[in-house]
Design brief:
- By secondary structure, the protein is an alpha/beta fold.
- The chain folds into 2 domains: about 150 residues, Leucine Dehydrogenase, chain A, domain 1 (Rossmann fold); about 150 residues, 3-Layer(aba) Sandwich (Rossmann fold), CATH 3.40.50.720.
- The protein has 15 helices and 12 strands.
- A 7-stranded mixed β-sheet has the order 9-8-7-6-10-11-12, with helices on both faces. Strands 1-2-4-3-5 form a 5-stranded mixed β-sheet.
- Bound molecules: nicotinamide-adenine-dinucleotide.
- Nicotinamide-adenine-dinucleotide binds next to loops.
- Nicotinamide-adenine-dinucleotide (NAD) binds next to loops.
């Protein structure tokens, strides 16, 4: 199968997600008048762990993979953040994703700090047995720093409920007792929460709805979604179900376009059956880079970082961008989009539905009492709507973009806890 075209080359700073995170943190710290020492704490991950992950492959050979776990902050509570399996995983990427988790948890006001993990591997070429052995050995490698009260992983790109189940089992065997609350995004029946699988996509839909209301844009609107996984696929389904027209979608293999609107359930059925968007019949196949530039009102990048950059931002036609992915827009692109008057709902708000329901899962595990899906979704909606309103109110108060508004809100909440806790010396 054909691979997606790599992100067009940009400057090395623009390509480095951690630099990108700092380029948003710095102005927020300046507006909040944080002292330089506090800024240094916020800019520096609290803990970075690199582990070798030896795995016996099916052909009998022994491969050694590299795994990371970064805890950016535990100031507001135990660290929380997903685990990514991908060839593009790097320490700087994991550091950026960990810091974004810190700000995100603060924006939606769940009592967690931020973390992220990743293993450099290509899961698409690995068997289930190889993936299980990789997951168990990676879990054992980072075991000392995780736990229900320390750091709670979750799924991210190319990881799923099954991987969380193996992770939880490995941890539980080591500590000699069942510990479902050590990860979230588990299968229901193993301590998973109803509504967790759909939480990020549902949260994206709530945010699109609020953004359209805020910008006084009458629906139905045309939507383009990049990425058709947990966030993009499910997000597209909620938009379709709520009467909007999804005119473009993509996955790593193909980008598809139908100006009359895609039949999203049919697209997802094709994807589930063939594992790729390639060959979907009722749409035109287009180059990946054209997808983001399609005529539409709402664009949802829900794949990976650095997709909207200084190279293509001026060609974006959407009036609203809702960042399902983490870090899809660079700081350089932000400036161009702002000049064009595009309303960008930043990642640390837009995709926070996942961590919000992960928090609900952790709470339910610790109570050993599980909620109905309706209750989970209603609580999620309350959190997302309140957080959207908090972010736009902060942006209005400081006359900034919603992105800076979200940083101001999140960073101030973390800085407040730092001030109150003082420095352990
Ligand atoms: P996933 O593995 O379920 O899906 C990723 C999708 O993106 C797949 O369809 C894949 O084919 C596609 N993709 C990957 N690279 C691409 C490229 N270069 N061009 C086009 N498509 C590409 O992952 P996910 O969980 O949906 O995560 C997507 C993004 O959302 C990531 O940035 C992740 O950090 C973020 N996120 C996920 C969650 C969650 O709950 N899963 C929560 C918050 C944020």
């Amino acid at each position: 199968m054909a691979q997606a075209v790599a992100t067009p080359p940009t400057s090395s700073t623009e390509n480095n997600p951690y630099e990108q995170m700092l380029r948003r943190l710095r102005p927020a710290a300046e507006i909040l008048q944080l002292d330089e020492g506090t800024y240094r704490i916020l800019a520096t991950p609290a803990k970075e762990l690199t582990v070798a992950v030896p795995v016996r492959m099916d052909d009998g050979s022994l491969q050694v993979f590299t795994g990371y776990r970064v805890q950016h902050s535990t100031t507001r509570g135990p660290a929380k953040g997903g685990i990514r399996y991908d060839l593009n995983v790097s320490l700087d990427e994991v550091k950026a994703l960990a810091a974004w988790m810190t700000w995100k948890c603060a924006v939606v006001n769940v009592p967690f700090g931020g973390a992220k993990g990743g293993v450099i591997c290509d899961p698409r070429t690995m068997s289930q047995g190889e993936l299980e052995r990789l997951t168990r050995r990676y879990t054992a490698g980072i075991l000392d720093i995780i736990g229900p009260d320390r750091d709670i992983p979750a799924p991210d790109v190319n990881t799923n409920e099954q991987i969380m189940a193996w992770f939880m089992d490995t941890y539980s065997m080591h500590v000699r007792m069942p510990q479902p609350a050590v990860v979230t995004g588990k299968p229901i029946g193993l301590g998973g929460s109803r509504g967790r699988r759909t939480a990020t996509g549902l949260g994206v839909w709530f945010v699109v709805r609020e953004a359209l209301r805020y910008r006084k844009m009458e629906g139905p609107v045309r939507v383009v979604v990049q990425g058709s996984g947990n966030v993009g696929g499910i997000g597209a389904e909620f938009l379709h179900r709520n009467g909007h027209k999804v005119v473009g979608m993509s996955d790593v293999f193909a980008a598809i376009h139908n100006p009359k609107g895609l039949d999203v359930p049919k697209v997802l059925e094709h994807l589930g059956r063939t594992r790729s968007l390639e060959g979907y019949p009722d749409a035109e196949r287009i180059p990946h880079e054209r997808l983001l530039e399609l005529d539409c009102e709402v664009l949802i990048p829900a794949a990976v970082e650095n997709q909207i950059t200084s190279r293509n931002a001026d060609r974006i036609k959407a009036r609203v961008i809702v960042e399902g992915a983490n870090g899809p827009t660079t700081a350089e692109a932000d400036r161009i989009l702002e000049q064009k008057g595009v309303f960008v709902v930043p990642d640390i708000l837009a995709n926070a539905g996942g961590v919000t329901v992960s928090y609900f899962e952790w709470v339910q595990d610790r109570m050993a009492y599980f909620w109905e899906e309706e209750e989970v979704n209603q609580r999620l909606e309350r959190v997302m709507v309140r957080s959207f309103n908090d972010v736009v109110a902060t942006a209005e108060k400081f006359s900034t973009s919603p992105r800076l508004g979200a940083y101001l809100l999140g960073v101030e909440r973390v800085a407040y806890c730092l001030r109150m806790r003082g420095l352990y010396a």
